[in-house]
Amino acid sequence: DRRQRQMCIRDRLKACAGLAHLENRKYKQAARKFLETSFDLGYKFTQIILPQDIAVYGGLCALATLDRQQLKKEVIDNAQFKNFLELVPSLRDLIHDFYNSKYAPFLENLEKLRLDLQLDIHLHDHIRGLYEKIRNKAVVQYFSPFLSVDMKHMADAFKTDVESLEKELSRLIMDGVIAARIDSHNKRLYAREVDERTTTFDKALKMGDEFHQHTKALLLRVNLVRNEFTVKLPRPEKSDHPHHKK
Predict the structure, then answer these.
(1) Predicted local distance difference test score (pLDDT) of residue 4
(2) Helices 89-99 and 51-65, axial angle in degrees (round to 10)
(3) What is the share, in percent, of the chain residues with pLDDT greater than 70?
(4) How far is CA 227 from CA 26, 220, 221, 222, in A?
(5) Residue 56 in contact with residue 31, Cβ under 8 Å?
(6) CB pairs under 8 A, 24+ apart, for 43-51?
(7) Closest listed residue to residue 39, CA positions, set 63, 70, 8, 71
(8) Can you tell me the distance from the alpha carbon of 122 to that of 207, in angstroms, rounded to the nearest whole number?
(9) What does residue 127 show for φ and ψ, rounded to 5 degrees?
(10) Strands of 180-183's sheet in order across
(11) Is the pLDDT of residue 200 over 50?
């Protein structure tokens, strides 16, 4: 009927918009368009895009650009997109591994997909950039719950050596992707937020001291007034010239 045709046209437009955003490297907008596409589109638009393509393009762009909460809400809990992901189980499992912080299997399986994805007509020019963004997101997500991290453990989780990881982290810090500092001697990564918390704590202490001093001064003044230790100003003398009434 007419409504179904309108829905079909809408989904075709969303899929096309997703491809256009992908081509223009606007990966977050691309993710959103693919994620909004209804599974009802199915195989009705195969001359342009397959449902498996929607799963792959939407899934990869989401991994590269959405934060953990958005990934849960807009991808994992998305009933429509879940149907697309069921057509590509390897990508579905990849997204769940990323969300559950299973970085070693996640990165290993992501790498296994690389060759096939590089042959994709729409993705081949974007794989390097998307993979870099996804890995950066994984590094940030790994580090975010901690104030400091042992880089040896982190290197194991990311299937790399400490030296390579240190170079990677230095680049991410320089690019402003991760707010941290590296202790090269002890091979630890410290959150820059620690310094900010210390500064905030110091400010709070200073405000507390000022309040304490102000309160003491106020109490002293109250006690002086109560005990009539006040300086009384002399009263002005009465004028010898009374006011004349008009």
Answers:
(1) 87
(2) 20
(3) 82
(4) 75, 11, 10, 9
(5) no
(6) 44/8, 44/12, 45/11, 45/12, 45/15, 48/12, 48/15, 48/16, 48/19, 49/15, 49/19, 51/84, 51/87
(7) 8
(8) 58
(9) -60, -50
(10) 148-150, 188-191, 180-183
(11) yes
Asked if 16 contacts 50 with a C-beta cutoff of 8 angstroms, the reply is no
Task: Read off the DSSP letter of residue 40.
Answer: G
Mean per-residue pLDDT for 148-153?
92
Nearest by Cα to 21 from 5, 1, 35, 7: 35
Q: Is the dihedral of CA 213, 216, 221, 222 positive or negative?
A: positive
In order, the DSSP letters of 42-104 are TTTTTTT--HHHHHHHHHHHHHHH--HHHHIIIIIT-HHHHHHHTT-HHHHHHHHHHHTT-HH
What is the C-alpha to C-alpha distance for residues 81 and 87, in angstroms, rounded to an integer? 10
Token pair of 131 as six digits: 């993979």
